[in-house]
Amino acid sequence: xxxxxxxxxxxxxxxxxxxxxxxxEAEDIAEHMAxxxxxTGEHLVGLTLTNKVKSACNEKxxxxxxxxxxxxxxxxxxTATR
Length: 82
Prior knowledge:
The longest helix is centred in the middle third of the chain and has 21 residues, at 37-57. By secondary structure, the chain is mainly alpha-helical. The protein starts with 5 loop residues before the first helix and ends with a helix. It has a single domain (6-80), classed as Arc Repressor Mutant, subunit A (Orthogonal Bundle), CATH 1.10.10. It is 76% helix and 0% strand. The protein is rod-shaped, with a radius of gyration of 22 Å. It has 5 helices and no strands.
């Protein structure tokens, strides 16, 4: 394998993080990052952002808020059907 270079590594970083590249492409990027602090830093930022978004999407609203929203929706629905 050959070093793919920073331009290619950064252009395909999102796909790399989400495992959307071929095995060979992913290996090229991994090999490049093993020797490039800049691209490794970009990778860390991408991973951190991806993990934060995933965890935020798993959070649930408090039960009180859920009850308030549902009650408001029922009120709106009742008013709209009159």
